[in-house]
C-alpha cells in the first residue's frame, strides 16, 4: 500500500518527539527518587516508563496518518517496549541502555546477511525514495552496515564506561548527529550512481 502524504514537520515531530521528551524528562527528574508500591525508582526509570507508551502512541499515530510503517520503525518500537519494559520491571536501567546496541546490531546483521546473498535489502526498503543504480545500492548498503555496527560498539562503550548523563546526551544528540553526518557524507555516491526518476527532465 502506498504511503499517504503527511506534512514533513508532523512526521518529524512524531519520530523525534518521544526522544526529545525523554531527554527533557530526564534532565528534570534525574536527581529524584520515587517510591511506588514500596519500591524506590530513580528518575531514569520513571522517565523510561513514560517514554514507552509515548513511543507506542506516536508510532501508532504515524501509522494512522501515513498508512504504513517501515520495518526499522516496527523493530525500534518493539525493542523499546521489550528492553524499556525490562528496565522498569526489574528496576535496572542497563536493559534500556542496551537497546540502541541491539537495534543497530540487528540492522547491521540484516544488511550484512543481504550482502552475503548478493542483495541490497536497503534498496528494497528505500528504492522508491532514492533511485540508485544496483552497484550504488550495494556500496551504500555495505557502508551503512559497517556504520550501524560501529554505532552498536560505540553505544556499548558509552553506557558501560561513562555516566548515565553522558549516555543520555550521546543517545539524544550523538547518535542523531552521527546518522545525519553519515547520510550527508554520501553525497558523492548519490551523484555518481543516482538515476533520474521517470518524468524527470
TrEMBL record:
Specify whether Nucleotide-binding is a keyword of the entry: no
Its subcellular locations are: Cell inner membrane
**Topological relation to the membrane, as annotated:** Multi-pass membrane protein
Q: Which residue ranges run through the membrane?
A: 12-29, 41-65, 72-90, 102-123, 144-162, 168-190
Q: Which UniProt keywords apply?
A: Cell inner membrane, Cell membrane, Membrane, Transmembrane, Transmembrane helix
Query: Does Transmembrane appear among the keywords?
Result: yes
Q: Pfam family of this protein, just one?
A: IspA
Main location per the UniProt record: membrane
Q: Which family does it belong to?
A: Belongs to the YciB family.
* Functional summary from the UniProt entry: Plays a role in cell envelope biogenesis, maintenance of cell envelope integrity and membrane homeostasis.
The protein's name is: Inner membrane-spanning protein YciB
Organism per entry: Ruixingdingia sedimenti
Originating gene: yciB
